[in-house]
Amino acid sequence: MRIELVWAPSSIRFQPIPPLGISTLAAALRSVGHFVEQKDLELECVELTLTGKWTTWKSDLAAMTNRDRVNRFVLENASDVEIQRGLSATQSLLPCDEFDIIGFSVMSMRQFWTSLLLARSLKKNERPKIVFGGEFVTRNGETILRKYEFVDFCLSGHSFKSFPWLIDFLQSNEKDSPQIPGLVYRSHGNPVSNKQGPIQIDDMPIPDFDGFSLQKYPKIIDIVFDGSFDTLLLRYLLSTGCPFDCVFCGRHVRAHPRLKDPPKIVKELCSLSRKYQTKLFCLECNEVNPSRKWLSHLCDEFEEKRLNLQWYAYAVPRDLDKESLNRLYFAGCRVLRFGMESGSQRILNLMNKPVDVSEAEAILKHSSEIGFWNHVNFIVGFPSEEKTDIQETVEFIKRNRKFIDSIKMSPFYVDSESSIFDSPERYGLRITQKTIDRIEFSEKNREWPQIMREVVWGVREIYQIMKDSEISSAGSATELVFVALTHFNNKETTKRWLKEKHPYFLDNIPSQRMIAKLYNPDERKLKETDELWHDFVGRWGGSFDVI
C-alpha cells in the first residue's frame, strides 16, 4: 500500500528536529514492503514564513488553530477566507501522489485542528483512509471518531505494530470487528476502543528519517537561532512509562516503565550518527535515571564504545550521586531537564512526587559543578497550593540560583488520564467543565476565576526571582540551549550569547510567548504589555496545550 505520514503545523511550537513518531512508524511499514512518504509540514511552513513566501501566515495559522472557526469550517461548511488561504498554502506542500492511507501524528491540540483541516480536504469518498495517532489522539480517540466522520480510525499509544496490522485488516476486506490493540474504530456508527497491547520496546525499529528534507533543519536552526551552527539534531526514544505515580500525570506516563536494552540503544545511536552524519541527540524518556542499575549499564555501554556523542534528557532529581553524574557527563549528556515541580515539600508530597527538597538541592549543586546545564520545571497552582508554598519555591530558587541555568513554569492543569481526574474529590476538586481541549475545575474554597488569578500571581512571583537572579527561560526551547552549548562548549559563553541574541528569555512573560518570539524574529523587539497576561489567563483554562 501507498502511505503518507504527516506531521501537521501548529502555531508556535515548532522544533527544528525531525519528528520521531512517524519516522519510527515509517521504519516499521517500510520493513514489510509498504511505500511510505513522510512529511514534516511544520518545517516546510516555517521555511515559507521565514523566506517571505507566506506573508499572511500569522493570521492564517491563528485561524487554522482556532477551535470554533475550524469546527464551523469542517462541520458546517462555513466560509473562512483565512482558513482556506492557510489550507491552500499547507496542502500545496504535500505530494500530489495518490495514497491509500494518510496518517496524521497529533501530539498537541494546536496540531489537531490543522490535521483536521488537512484530513477533510484530502478525503475523497472512501479513499484515502484517514488515520489519526499520537499523544493527543490517545487521550481523545473516541471523541474524535464520534464528531468527525472523515476520520476513519484512531490509534492509541505506540503504533509501530498496530498500524501494519490495521493495513493487513484493510487489505483482507474482513467484515468482523478488527481485534487490533489500541485501535479506535466505528461499529454501527459508534466509536469502539480496543485496549492497548503491551509494548515490547526492544521490538521498536530504529527510526528511519529518510524522506524528510533533512538539509533544511540546519538551515532553519541557523536562521531562527541567529547563529552559525550548521548542525542536525535527532530524537531517539530510550524508554516509555515511569516508575513513579505522580497524581497529575496521565496513565500513559504512569504506566510501568519499559526500558530499552542499553547495548541496543548505543548500537542504534551509533548507526544513526553514521547514517545521518550528526553527533547531537535528544534522548526521549521520562527520566534518564529510572534505576541505578539501568543507568549504570547505559553509562557502561557509552564508555565502552566511546561514541563521542552529545545529548540531553529528562531526569528526576533523586538518587543521583556524584559518581553517577560524572559518568553521565562522560557519556555525552550536557543538559539535564529536572522535573522538580515545586520547592515546597508539602506540595511534592501531595503530588506523590518522590523528591526530597534537600536531596534535589545537592544534586543541582553537583551537576552544575560538573558542567551540566541544569533546567528545572515547576508547576504552579497545584490543588491546595498556598502563597506560602509559592514562597518556598521562590526561596528554593534563591538558594540554588548559582546552580540553576534555566526554568520553565507550567500552570497546573487536570490531565484527563490522571489520578486527580479519576478521583477529583480526593484532592478537593470538582470538575466544572470538560471539552476536547479544556478542563475547568474548582476547589472547596476557590472558584475558577480566583484559581486563575492566584496562578498568575504565583507565576509572576517566580518570574521575578528568576529575573533578579538572571535565570532565563531559555530551557523552554531546550534545543536552542543545547545546540548553542555544544557549539560554544562553555556554559558562561552560551549564557552571554543567549543574552545578546535572545534577551527576551530573561523577560517576565509567559514561556509560550517567548517561544513565539523565538520563531518570529520580527516580534523580538516588541514591548509586551499587561494585556498579555489577560490573554494568557483566558487561553490557559486548564487546557492541555497552551503552555
Can you describe this structure?
The chain is of the alpha/beta class and 547 residues long. The protein has two domains: 2-193, Cobalamin-binding domain (Rossmann fold), CATH 3.40.50; 217-489 and 534-540, pyruvate-formate lyase- activating enzyme. The protein contains 22 helices and 17 strands. It has helices at 20-31, 41-50, 57-64, 67-76, 81-91, 109-122, 135-147, 162-172, 216-225, 251-254, 262-276, 292-305, 322-330, 345-351, 357-370, 387-399, 419-422, 448-469, 478-488, 491-501, 511-518, 531-540; strands at 2-7, 35-40, 101-105, 129-133, 153-155, 183-187, 190-193, 233-237, 239-240, 258-259, 280-284, 310-315, 333-341, 373-380, 406-411, 429-435, 438-443. The chain has a seven-stranded mixed sheet, with helices on both faces. Helix 12 (292-305) links the parallel strand 11 (280-284) and strand 12. It starts with a strand and ends in a 7-residue tail after the last helix. The model is unreliable at 529-547 (pLDDT under 50).
